[in-house]
Specification:
Number of helices: 12
Helix content: over 70%
Strand content: under 5%
Number of strands: 0
Order of helices and strands: HHHHHHHHHHHH
Shape: globular
Radius of gyration: 23 Å
Length: 305
């Protein structure tokens, strides 16, 4: 909800300053746009994406068989067949399917709560900020207020950089897969862009279905796809992200790796997905409240104006 509120506030400020609209009207316009764009995209491209998704679901079993055959030729059939059989066994499939169906209702309810909370937080952020600060002793409210502002600024910068990286990676992935001749390149590019939000793990997960589908065409295409994702990750890690982080938030890579592991152990999949923004928040808090205020040591704070 907080991340969504930050996104809404960024859009509201941009509309308010550029179009010269009142804040409430700008907020309504941003929220309406965020609701309308996915609906219009689903109407415009939904049939194509649904068709490509169905193609992927039908092609993946054949891709597994193709991978099994290639691994058998390499002498790894006994080891790999056991794992693949367990992965695609009927009992495992039904267990996964039943668990997924049971969680759909909870997921929909969580989406409603997150969206509603994000809209209310974005509508009156000062109200909730004041309420939170009143829970603290008066002597600490100044430092806490500065920390909250730093966290908002840092999350805003981080989100802008992450969304730009997601857009670039998704676009280049789709174009590269189209040039290689892999089917469902639009859906695979969309998946690559979305999974770019998850540090380290997301790009690896995005490459798996693309490589499996390329195996249906031939080993050469599969190698080309692996090379494409390798090049994209090198560009993202050594060019795109460093350029973006010059104007965003630069998190130490080792800190981010341990954050993914730690938040994943604590909160499961949601912790993995939100590990980077949670790390941004903790990074700011540690620098502001501990290093700067408690240890009285000067240090640059992400988002500090």
């Amino acid at each position: 909800s907080v991340l969504l509120a930050v996104v809404i506030r960024v859009g509201t400020r941009a509309v308010r300053d550029r179009v010269r609209l009142p804040e409430r009207l700008a907020l309504l316009l941003v929220v309406a746009t965020m609701v309308a764009v996915p609906i219009l995209a689903a109407v415009k491209f939904g049939a194509d994406i649904a068709g490509q998704t169905e193609l992927v679901s039908r092609a993946l079993p054949a891709a597994f068989d193709r991978a099994r055959a290639l691994l058998a030729q390499a002498g790894l059939s006994n080891l790999v067949n056991t794992e693949l059989d367990a992965l695609v066994s009927t009992s495992a499939f039904y267990s996964f399917a039943s668990g997924a169906l049971m969680s759909i209702g909870d997921a929909l309810m969580n989406v409603v709560i997150v969206v509603s909370g994000g809209v209310f937080l974005a509508a009156k952020p000062a109200l909730y900020r004041r309420g939170l600060l009143k829970l603290l002793p008066p002597s600490t409210r100044g430092a806490a207020g500065r920390s909250l502002q730093d966290m908002e600024n840092a999350l805003t910068l981080w989100l802008k950089g992450r969304l730009l990286a997601m857009l670039l990676v998704g676009t280049f992935s789709g174009l590269g897969l189209w040039m290689i001749g892999v089917p469902s390149y639009v859906m695979l590019g969309l998946v690559a862009g979305l999974l770019e939000f998850i540090p380290f793990i997301g790009p690896f997960l995005a490459a798996i279905p693309a490589v499996l589908l390329a195996l249906l065409i031939g080993p050469t295409e599969a190698l080309l796809v692996m090379g494409l994702y390798f090049v994209l990750q090198q560009l993202e890690g050594n060019l795109i992200t460093p350029l973006i982080q010059q104007h965003a938030v630069d998190l130490p890579p080792a800190l981010l790796i341990y954050a993914v592991l730690g938040f994943g152990l604590l909160f499961g999949l949601p912790g993995v997905i939100l590990s980077a923004p949670l790390t941004v928040v903790l990074f700011v808090l540690v620098k502001r409240l501990y290093v700067q205020d408690y240890l009285d040591t000067e240090t640059p704070i992400p988002g500090e104006l």
